[in-house]
Amino acid sequence: MDKSLVVAEATGEGVLRYRMLEPVRQYAREKLEESGEAESLRSRHARFFLALAEEAAPMLQERDQAAWVKRLETEHPDLVVHRMTKSLRPGKVLVDWSQNSAAKTTVSVYSLRARERPTVSTPVTWDEVGACRSFEDLVFTSDDVLDRVERLGDLFSPLLG
Question: Is residue 81 within 8 Å of residue 72, measured between CB atoms?
Answer without folding.
Answer: no
